Amino acid sequence: MRVQALGEWGLIRRIRRTIGSGAPGVCVGIGDDTAVLQPTPGAWLLATTDLVIEGVHFRRRSAGPADIGWKAMAVNLSDIAAMGGTPRFALVALACPEETEVEEVDQFYEGLTAAAAPHGVALVGGDTSASPAGWIVNVTLLGEMTGAPRLRSGARPGDVIAVVGTLGRSAAGLAVLEAGLRPDLPGDVLAEVEQAHLRPVARVAEGKWLGARDAVHAMIDLSDGLATDLGHIATESGVAARVALPRLPVAPSAGAVAQALGLDALDLATTGGEDYELLFTMERSAAEAIATGLGSATGAAVTVIGEISTGTPGVQFNDAAGRAVDIGQGYEHFHG
Length: 336
Fold this sequence. Notes:
Helices cover 36% and strands 24% of the residues. By secondary structure, the chain is of the alpha+beta class. It has 2 domains: 8-145, CATH 3.30.1330.10; 152-325, PurM-like C-terminal domain (Phosphoribosyl-aminoimidazole Synthetase, Chain A, domain 2). The strands form 3 sheets. The protein has a 7-stranded mixed sheet. A 4-stranded mixed sheet has the order 3-6-4-5. Helix 3 packs parallel to helix 4 and helix 6 crosses helix 9. The two termini are 40 Å apart.
């Protein structure tokens, strides 16, 4: 059956059955003019929203409906993680062509709820609409935190720059999906990079742990690429950032894909984007303890990749000899 035959209210009833109802803090969920929510007393309210658009953020030939739903939720979870917060409530707006099969919408919401469920996020409302061409998804996510949010503007001279996890897998996955012919690589390598692109995992637990540490001063998620996102920290904090390229934790799978496709692994790691790892600055004296503590608490690795200093705000990448290297910028909308 197509959504055109089901109609908007029939589709909404079906969505309501798919995602269920009832969660802590939800007084009124889907079914009324607005959701009625009970925030935690004394907590800061965090709010973020992201558009995911067919032809811009995904292509239907490589991303299934469940993948689209998963990623639409994950990118918002990552924003809350970057503040050190706890995600709680989501509103989801979906526009799709009238000829879309109802089962595809089911799969979309199944992927979305699968990404949300591990973090206890409740879907409390949204909207549906016909689209003249392609899928358009907008997720608004509300979160909370009781301590001070970790802002882009918090970096201080003397801090070191660190990243959680590895870099380049998502860009490598996109390159594989767009290549047409699959490179001659082990299946587990291809699966890893494709999964990283289609179904990224937000570092929510890691963000909460880091956000509770006074020695962590600034944080951002790596959505647009290391070069661009570190640039945001440098600009907002009014500091200079220096990164040692040999220190970057380039994912081995990204390196293998780069070699097979004739790409530069450092380009994938610095400008590829959509890794959704956490980039943060912290006191140099606390670096070892934080790396050890986060590893023990979550299993995630921390790599120190550079340092913050006074000077003209911006980012400089240096090679093994300490020479400055020109690195391009990551993804930017309206770049034409």
